[in-house]
Amino acid sequence: MEFFTQAGIVFKAFLDTFGVNVLVPIVVFVLSIAIRVELKKALRAAIFMAIGLTAFNLILNILWGQLDAVMVLISANVGKVFDVVDIGWPAAAAIVYSNSLGMTYFIVGLLWNLILFFTRVTDTFQPTDIWNYYYFVVWGIMVQFVTGSFVLGLAACMFMNLFVLLVADFLAPALQEYYGYEGLTCTCICVTNISILAALLRWVQMKLHIKEVHLEPEKLQEKLGFFGEPAMIGIIMGILLGVVAYIHDLGSMATWSKILSFALTLAAMLVIYPQVSGMFVKGLIPVSQSMNARMRSGKMKRKAFNIGIDPAVYFGETSTLTTGLLLIPILIFTAAILPGNRIIPMADIPAMPFMAIGAIAVFKGNILNAAITGGIWYSLVHYIASDTAALFTQMATNAGTTLSAGQTFVNSWCVSAQPPLWVIMKAFSAPGALKFIFIAVCLAVYVLALWHFKTHRKAWFMFFGASAEYADQYLSIASAAV
């Protein structure tokens, strides 16, 4: 494993030096050439992706700066002391990047992804999203810390990666149908695992014939006219959140200047972001077209081909951003009232729009249903973050994180927002021989789910929110290739 660790260190150094903006276009360029996309088209695609990623980062950094300040104030207004401090996802990334298992998985995970894709265990090509490994690798490192076994930690990472790719396959048609980006799926498990509860609640709603209350941007615009347009939704949401944040100082003109600036930033995000997403996706069109053409011609016999991509491509869609903003005060409220909870989302709470993506795809943009699902799913996360706080704190301090004055325990609320991976971590780190029983159960459940998915694809796609018509369209390429 020493070779993989050293290779991971070299890869990490490359990533640190050039960044995702360079790495992703390079991966897409190599993939394009490998599937025989014309050189000029492949280069053009890579450049558009680089421009799109650069624009993403510029816009998100502006929003993040203002949103972070507002969220800290809203959290402070709760008036309750918590002994676990949310210090954000960068702490989890630091744990992964300073750990031998984390560095090893950069290379082992890449090879594992390629094996799974080319053996058709998965339809999703994940090497275009390898920087999001750390969202599940940190859980594998927890297994290593509890058990003292590098091998068990690595096995946990590999199994969690299987789960990540299975969810990406389940959700791909719903993501493509709703967001309109053909050939893409999301492999950041932090934002898609909520689709599991969303799909279940949607199924229950349909079985019990519960009337759905539609609250989508199109419906709002139809009923409210100008006030239902994305720009106005951003301004209204920004003013409401700003008022909650600055509730104790609303008599100051300086305060209203901050509130209105924040509101206009949200409005600009909702107007500009879709244009940036279109530029980013434009870079993937040659890859998608080439793969579809090869499948239709029979040169490649696959059920589907999806490119795993960072959730930033979906972030600024109106329903997604609106749902995420609605969930912020909801989750701060549940954190304050739930008995036994020890953490309040703070550093990671601005990530909520990302974490609404899976539910929005399943519910086809219904803000109400997605917000209810997020309120339930992410309120559970308060307890998961509380449960793993001591272990996360130990891992963070070992990685060089220094606790600030008054901090006893720290965690990343965003990284904790993965109930399925918490269950897997518990199974792989159970005491004694019990762990092997639980691991066997996990493997059996995965194999059964994978087999059922392979034999009932359309049913799974529809369960996760795709319409029957789109599921048929999605599967038609495979039929044409036979």
Brief sketch in words of this structure:
It contains 22 helices and 6 strands. It has about 475 residues and is mainly alpha-helical.
Features:
disordered C terminus, 482 residues, 22 helices, three-stranded parallel beta sheet
Order of helices and strands: HHHEHHEHHEHHHHHHEHEHHHEHHHHH
Please give the order of strands in the largest beta sheet: 5-1-6
Helix content: over 70%
Estimate the strand proportion: under 5%
Gyration radius (Cα, Å) is 22 Å
- Main sheet attributes: strand count, strand direction, barrel closure: 3 strands, parallel
Provide a count of the helices.
22
- List low-confidence stretches: 478-482
Report the average pLDDT across residues: 81
Descriptive notes:
Helices cover 71% and strands 4% of the residues. It has 22 helices and six strands.
